[in-house]
């Protein structure tokens, strides 16, 4: 985003001198390179100082590299290079190498424009501490922060920050010593690139990921619009879909993206028909949106249906709650607690209007920055990021839960390695809260910022029911856009019989919404084109379960504009089963390298689950399905270790089997799924990954009933 979300104090100078070379004329990369080739040391020094003071770090870097050719050990020049590496390139490891040279000679009266200045400013201690902090060298970071406090001028603009940083370091020591149990991975170079990739928004079912990237356009349309400050291409929004084998497809740039404009993802509606967008053409940054109709997303427009949302201040992020009763957004407007704060507006049924913005207040908001709110489908679990006193470094992801009175709990840091000592932000989750995606900058990244996937077994939603449904068509094609169909959900025993309008996702007819436990609902399937009620259904949610899913499936005849009874599934060839004695069923699937998921909707796994169904229908009361998974010794960069890969194969299978049987009322509670083993087996790796026949027998997931 053009106005950086991760900025710190700019490069500080005390005397502003404008060289005769550049700022009296247009700055270009060619002119800067020419100066680096032909200018003397004084000219290059003055120009680099001016460029850094103005924030043109990419161009300044060209000149600083030349200065280091003149004097490679000069503390002043190493300070400049370290600063650029740390804050412009976000390369804290490389930055530390230069800043370590810079602190060898410091001067409180540093003159950045003097060719005689060999020293670095005392600020070099602070910036080296920051590099150590990001690199998890916590004790050294604290030492350097303290040295900065002892040696800096009393009026330094960095002094108010240094105590915060020391506190964050102490937090980091505590969290790193007691890590949380999560499985975290970079989602790979199909989605991530050598350029910044960030702000992921995952669909609730995990099948699509929308994200922002600063990669170039394929045909060179964005070449002339690179940012002169950092030489990066404009922001654009992409979408990638998860294939049946759990891999992400090649990202597709969305049609409304403009080569001259920055557009960044903020949030996506559950039906994926609306995308909320950050755009900065006004100079401050505002919230926009685009809607999907006529087979495409249309050009973006300011979000004006929420009063007093976009202002002359900076609005960076937003999200609508799934019940559409609360809208959360971020702003640095006057009247906040400091920096960027999270606000909300509430929908009033009586007046049919949105409330005035309400600051969420302390302890969620702090005198520092809060950003990227994400509300779970239970409409009460809020995730967001802060760089305040609860962080362990940079932005950290926090979690807070709203009680029945509408008050949020004291926020909790998600811990380490969920959070790192660098920036962790833009966290969104799938339906049950156990799989999430975020932006982070870590050692295994492909670019300046990457997207990571996180699995956990302790953040699942509680006291919530979910309606998951799908509207299929008789020809198995996506729902035509010119046929408007929606699902009206009416709570029959809620106050004033509340209703929710839910639209199916056009690409596959999928729809989803949250429910209240212990309530009775009526579903109405309506043909909005002709205002005709096509069908009804009803159900009651359980009162004594912490999490439940209600699954509904209907078949639409588009030509006749009616709902029809689905035909029976194709008959699967299953051995005869004696009603009293149920033979154990077995299944095994062999994976290719790094693959970890298969579908219950096709192939031999479909035959297996249908065989289990038949036994249950024939009278078997309960079935236990044991899972055995394996990975070979062929190294996996994607999952870091083969143990992780074997475990993921087992966990994916367990999740899919439970979802399959628990979503069918007649089988609910009758199938127990147990992971018996997940291990690494087979011959030791001999750098012969091409010999797939050698390793494939040890890359499998197997099932056996008892």
Could you characterize the architecture of this molecule?
This protein is an alpha+beta fold and 706 residues long. It folds into four domains: 29-177, Serine Threonine Protein Phosphatase 5, Tetratricopeptide repeat, CATH 1.25.40; 182-456, 6 Propeller (Neuraminidase), CATH 2.120.10.30; 464-564, Carboxypeptidase-like, regulatory domain (Immunoglobulin-like, Sandwich), CATH 2.60.40.1120; 586-705, 60s Ribosomal Protein L30, Chain: A. Helix content is 21%, strand content 29%. The chain contains eleven helices and 36 strands. Strands 8, 9, 10, 11 and 12 form a five-stranded antiparallel β-sheet that branches. Helix 1 (29-38) runs parallel beside helix 3. The protein is globular. Mean pLDDT is 88; it is low at 1-24 and 567-580.
At the fourth level of CATH, the homologous superfamily of the largest domain is TolB, C-terminal domain
Estimate what percentage of residues fall within beta strands.
25-35%
Helical run tally = 11
Which runs of at least 5 residues are low in confidence (pLDDT < 50)?
A: 1-24, 567-580
What name does the CATH topology of the largest domain carry?
A: Neuraminidase
Describe the global form: globular
| Average pLDDT for all residues | 88
* CATH class descriptor of the largest domain: Mainly Beta
Total strand segments: 36
Number of domains: 4
Distance between the termini: 55 Å
Quick one: biggest sheet?
A: 5 strands, antiparallel
Rg from Cα: 28 Å
């Amino acid at each position: 985003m053009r106005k950086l979300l991760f900025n710190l104090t700019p490069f500080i100078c005390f005397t502003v001198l404008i060289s005769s070379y550049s700022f009296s004329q247009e700055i270009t990369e060619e002119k800067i390179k020419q100066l680096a080739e032909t200018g003397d040391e004084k000219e290059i020094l003055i120009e680099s100082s001016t460029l850094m003071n103005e924030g043109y770090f990419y161009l300044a870097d060209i000149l600083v590299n030349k200065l280091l050719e003149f004097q490679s050990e000069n503390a002043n020049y190493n300070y400049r290079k370290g600063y650029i590496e740390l804050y412009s390139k976000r390369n804290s490891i490389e930055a530390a190498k230069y800043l370590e040279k810079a602190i060898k000679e410091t001067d409180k009266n540093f003159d950045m424009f003097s060719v005689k200045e060999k020293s670095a400013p005392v600020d070099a201690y602070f910036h080296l501490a920051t590099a150590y902090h990001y690199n998890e060298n916590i004790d050294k970071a604290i030492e350097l922060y303290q040295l900065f406090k002892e040696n800096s001028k009393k009026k330094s603009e960095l002094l108010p920050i240094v105590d915060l940083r020391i506190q964050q370091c102490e937090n980091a020591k505590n969290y790193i010593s007691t890590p949380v149990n999560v499985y975290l991975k970079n989602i790979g170079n199909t989605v991530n690139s050598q350029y910044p990739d960030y702000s992921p928004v995952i669909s609730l079912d995990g099948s699509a990921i929308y994200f922002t990237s600063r990669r170039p356009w394929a045909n060179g349309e964005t070449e002339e619009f690179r940012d002169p400050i950092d030489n990066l291409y404009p922001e654009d929004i992409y979408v990638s879909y998860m294939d049946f084998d759990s891999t992400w497809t090649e990202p597709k740039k969305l049609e409304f993206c403009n080569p001259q404009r920055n557009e960044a993802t903020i949030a996506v509606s559950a039906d994926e028909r609306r995308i909320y967008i950050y755009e900065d053409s006004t100079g401050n940054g505002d919230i926009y949106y685009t809607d999907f109709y006529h087979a495409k997303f249309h050009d973006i427009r300011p979000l004006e249906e929420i009063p007093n949302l976009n202002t002359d201040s900076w609005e960076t992020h937003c999200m609508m709650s799934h019940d559409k009763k609360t809208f959360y957004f971020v702003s640095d407007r006057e009247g906040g607690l400091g920096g960027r704060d999270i606000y909300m507006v509430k929908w009033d049924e009586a007046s049919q209007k949105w409330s005035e913005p309400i600051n969420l207040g302390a302890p969620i908001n702090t005198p520092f920055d809060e950003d990227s709110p994400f509300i779970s489908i239970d409409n009460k679990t809020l995730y967001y990021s802060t760089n305040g006193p609860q962080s362990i470094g940079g932005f950290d992801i926090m979690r807070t839960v709203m009680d029945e009175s509408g008050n949020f709990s004291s926020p909790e840091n998600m811990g380490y390695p969920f959070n790192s000592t660098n920036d962790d932000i833009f966290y969104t989750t799938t339906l049950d809260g156990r799989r999430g995606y975020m932006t982070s900058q870590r050692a295994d990244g492909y670019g300046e910022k990457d997207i990571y996937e996180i699995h956990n077994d302790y953040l699942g939603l509680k006291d919530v029911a979910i309606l998951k449904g799908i509207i299929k068509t008789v020809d198995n094609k996506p729902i035509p856009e010119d046929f408007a169909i929606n699902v009206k959900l009416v709570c029959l025993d809620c106050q004033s019989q509340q209703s929710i309008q839910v639209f199916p996702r056009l690409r596959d007819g999928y729809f989803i919404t949250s429910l209240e436990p212990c309530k009775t609902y009526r579903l109405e399937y309506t043909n909005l084109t002709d205002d005709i009620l096509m069908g009804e259904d009803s159900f009651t949610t359980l009162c004594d379960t912490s999490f439940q899913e209600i699954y509904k499936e209907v078949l639409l005849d588009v030509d006749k504009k009616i709902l029809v009874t689905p035909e029976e599934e194709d008959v699967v060839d299953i051995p005869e089963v004696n009603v009293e004695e149920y033979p154990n069923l077995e299944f095994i699937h062999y994976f290719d390298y790094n693959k970890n998921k298969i579908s219950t909707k096709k192939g031999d796994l479909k035959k297996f689950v249908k065989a289990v169904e038949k036994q249950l229908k024939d009278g078997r009361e309960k079935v236990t399905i044991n899972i055995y998974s394996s990975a070979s010794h062929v190294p996996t960069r994607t999952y870091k270790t083969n143990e992780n890969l074997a475990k993921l194969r087992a966990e994916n299978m367990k999740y899919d089997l439970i979802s399959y049987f628990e979503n069918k009322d007649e089988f609910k509670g009758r199938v127990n799924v147990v992971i018996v083993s997940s291990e690494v087996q087979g011959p030791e790796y001999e750098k012969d990954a091409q010999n797939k026949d050698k390793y494939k027998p040890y890359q499998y997931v197997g099932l056996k009933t008892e």
